[in-house]
Amino acid sequence: MITKFRLGADPEMFLIDNISNKVVSAINKVPGTKISPYKISADGHSVQVDNVLLEFNIPPSGNPKRMWKDIEFVKDWFNDNLPKNHSYLIKSSAKLDKSELEDEGANEFGCDPDFNAWTGKVNKPPEAKDTLWRSAGAHIHISYEGYNMGTSVALVKAMDLFLGVPSVIFDTDTERRKLYGKAGAFRFKNYSDNEGGVEYRVLSNFWIKKLDYVKWVFSQVEKAFIFINEHGEIENNSELANSIIHVINNSDVAKATELIKKYKIYDTEQI
Q1: Residue 182 has pLDDT above 80, yes or no
Q2: If DSSP codes are grouped into helix, strand and coil, which group holds residue 91?
Q3: If exposure means fewest CB atoms within 10 Å of the residue's CB, which of 147, 155, 194, 244 is most exposed?
Q4: pLDDT tens across 49-107, in order?
Q5: What is the pLDDT at residue 125?
Q6: How far apart are CA 197 and CA 184, in angstroms?
């Protein structure tokens, strides 16, 4: 029975030139890389460039208000430190001019492989050179006591039901899901010698826009844990599994609405 968990995140945002009103590459405009993030506090906040995106890390928390303060802390740092006439943009996907994608780093997708909880197979990353589109996620890191691979896979499937399915209603941008964020996308994680869990990679960055969304994420993760505590893992190829996968991968709002009502996935008054 799992009752305690903490959440962290590594959200991505676009950089926009306020003069041209175009999304531009963040390469060489902010410090930090995936290998060597730039620390902006002693508490675990850091920033970096990932592909052409602004990315940041926040410390894990068991409280949504605390997480929101951490998110706002980094947003404020960007407001103070981005180049003149530039700002961040919270958007799921954007098409860039080809001239913004000439740097080698702009054509690297998927630094480490992620997996599909429904198939157990490695997800093949898209080819960056084949598209001018770039996508922004806000992956959720979940650490919990007694972590193990089996529980983590079961949790990802339940999170697809409680977070992934309703996300197609909250985030109507379908371009990102053509590149990333398919059903069941995750990575196993060891955060320290005695703490581990999973990185849930399905959601875009829509949920870092406001506190109510952050509260909703915490509530939905809790519901996912309650679900696996009471019902166990959702069976592959079951009607529920196939419906979840279809909704997320095809951005099917109508079917998502059906599942939300049938399984009482969330209280619409929350948002």
Answers
A1: yes
A2: coil
A3: 194
A4: 999 999 999 999 999 999 999 999 999 999 999 999 999 999 999 999 999 999 999 99
A5: 82
A6: 15
Domains of the chain, earliest start first: 5-270 (3.30.590)
- Taking the C-alpha atoms of residue 185 and residue 235, their distance in angstroms, rounded to an integer, is 16
Count each helix (H run) and each strand (E run) in the chain, helices first.
7, 12
pTM across the whole model: 0.95
Q: Residue 85: phi, psi to the nearest 5?
A: 65, 25
* 24 C-beta neighbours (distance < 10 Å), count: 19
Q: Please tell me the predicted confidence (pLDDT) of residue 270.
A: 61
Contact 232, 154 (CB under 8 A): yes
Q: How many CA atoms lie within 13 A of 112 on its CB side?
A: 10
Alpha helices in 12-94 (DSSP H): 64-81
Helix (H, G, I), strand (E, B) or coil at 38: strand
